[in-house]
Specification:
Distance between the termini: 64 Å
CATH architecture of the largest domain: Roll
Number of domains: 2
Order of helices and strands: HEHEEEEEHEEEHEEHEEHHH
Structural class: alpha+beta
Strand content: 15-25%
CATH class of the largest domain: Mainly Beta
Largest sheet: 7 strands, mixed
CATH topology of the largest domain: PUA domain-like
Length: about 300
Amino acid sequence: MAFEVDETGLRIAVFQWLREREAWNNGIFSGRELNEGITVAGRRITLKGQTGIWFPAGWAMPVSITTSNRGLYKLDEIGDDGFFTYAYRGNDPGHRDNVGLRNALRTRTPLVYFKEVEGARYQAIWPVIVLDDMPDRLCVRAAIDPAYGELKAGARFGDIDASPLDVRRYAWGQTRHRLHQNAFREMVVSAYDQRCAICRLNHPELLDAAHIIPDSDERGTPVIPNGLSLCKIHHAAYDKNILGIDPDYRVHIREDILLERDGPMLKHGLQELDGSSLIVPKRVAERPDRERLKVRFGEFRSA
């Protein structure tokens, strides 16, 4: 039997669903599943739609805001403190969607920010709150706010104090790193057609995006040519310099590993790959950068 849940309860249910799904999809949501939404207490709640500022049917305020990606994925429009601006819909400050953003500001109601990674796949960033309305610039100012992170049913959004700025900066720093890594994985694994570049394994849930140059290095930018789609065992072997890849896309297994005698996993999973060729993306621009491979292969040879 269906029971009534108010808009606050439905919003919290959306946040909980996003958190649960994130554990399974590395934080990347398809446009289709967001458009289809979820069912709560017998009600279908769509999470995004054709407009950037989205109201599920019957809602007084939006549940989400969306930015489409036209080019390489980036989060640079969000500052180091977690603040960002979001454009109005059109040029009329009185449009219902823009009024909805101002109502979210007035009530301090948290929203979900969907940032497109590529190909109608979205990174979900939540909760965000609208902090300022700038009708002369046709936009609002919003922020990632960790104060809402553990909302439970029955909570009242307006009763929660804003987070101190230093807490927000710290929380956003952690969130930014996670978002970059999730988006990097999505782009790299997609470029390799959901396969391990070494063993051809075609189970995306067992694939990682390995950095050629680590992200701790200034050259280790999160771009596809600095990534390799590897299954978890070959990713670990690559990171530990058990396995190396030269600039000509050939796989090398460390000499001491070649001399070991163990079970079939060592033989077929590593030793027999020595001298094999790497699978590379069809698009030349997405193939591993040879200069980066040269640097990393030098480290492997020295190991």
